[in-house]
Amino acid sequence: MSENLPVTGNTTGHSASMTDLATPFRRLFPAPVSGQTLATLALAIGFSLIVPGFFSLGSMRSMMFQLPQLGLLALAMAIPMMSGGLNLAIIAIANACGLAMVTVLGHLPLEGHGAGYVGFCIVIALMAGAVLGTALGGVTGWLIVRTKVHPILVTLGIMSIVEGTSIWLTRGEVVSGLPALYGQIGNASLVQIPLAFLAFLAVAGVVHLLLQHTAFGISIRMIGSNALATRYSAIDVDRVTIRIYALSGFLCFCAACLMLARFNSASAAYAKSYLLVTVLAAVLGGVDPNGGFGRVTGLVLAMIMLQLIATGFNLLGFSDYLTLAIWGLVLIGVACAQSSFKKRR
User: Where are the transmembrane segments (predicted)?
Assistant: First the structure.
């Protein structure tokens, strides 16, 4: 027994020190996220070997321009999913915010004025879009709370109402007329990195802090895990639910800001194919479709992974429709894998 004592003590000390070193990394990047990191690196290396010029400056900048608006919409989808819900109205709300901002700018006299005045008008338009997006999200949450109807049905109804109203008001036409200053800011770069990409990272960072280090963020996952137990914990579940969908609506507004800069116009029909990809990104990023778990770091890595695949497929000449079909297969595969893992655990 005396011979084993030193060995046991050394092993414990070594294990504890390794755990202490690994703890900060594991908190930020849990096991599923670490796996996504390896998968992302593998995809990047694979496409760089198969596709010539995959890592060229032009290709990388193109990816960084395309990712932000879809990433923000994925965040808008992921937060309700963490609470056990879903928001199928994110695309319709984003397009409505874009149309509202263009309409406000169209009714303000911009010609013949300096950059300061035009910038002030842009701020007014942004405020209008933010209020509309947050309000639509808040109303969605309020309806879910008051009617006790499943979020899928409520958000499907909101999507139809918002999209139908937007098409009716615009007669289905593309609405343009943005000042040149808006496009210049939206498409600007800092050290070859698009400002839109930096804005996405900034918003993702704020949402990460909100979810991981505030009572609101903890309440979201508690509701997703067990709403009834959360209600018995003296947490106002109804109020938190309304705030969840209001935040989702605000993130839709953020996505609309970037979509306006990219398309230089607004329409009720933009980005319809994004809905499937946002759900896929959330699930692939580790968000539990039944609620209770999810991290922004995982979602960001999932978005990078999907953008790498989409760019690789595009450079290989794949059809957009084929890519969409592949996304559907991947979503079903990931959902089945998660379900199988839960049963084994």
Answer: 38-58, 70-94, 114-145, 152-170, 190-211, 244-263, 269-287, 299-318, 324-341
The neighbouring-strand residues paired with 189 are: 194
- Amino acid identity of residue 285, one-letter, is G
Token pair listed for 211: 């979810």
- Helices 90-106, 237-263: axis angle to 10 degrees equals 60
Alpha helices in 226-319 (DSSP H): 227-232, 237-263, 274-284, 296-315
**What length does the chain have?**
345
**Distance, CA of 135 to CA of 131 (rounded, Å):** 6
Cα separation, 323 vs 329, whole angstroms: 10
Tell me the C-alpha distance between 114 and 274, whole Å. Answer: 37
What was the pLDDT predicted at 25? 46
| Non-local CB neighbours of 83 within 8 Å, separated by 6+ positions | 220, 221, 223, 224, 240, 241, 244, 291
CA dihedral angle for residue 241, residue 246, residue 252, residue 253, rounded to 10 degrees = -170
Widest distance between CA atoms in the chain: 91
Residues 298-328 have pLDDT tens digits of 899 888 888 888 888 888 888 888 888 888 8
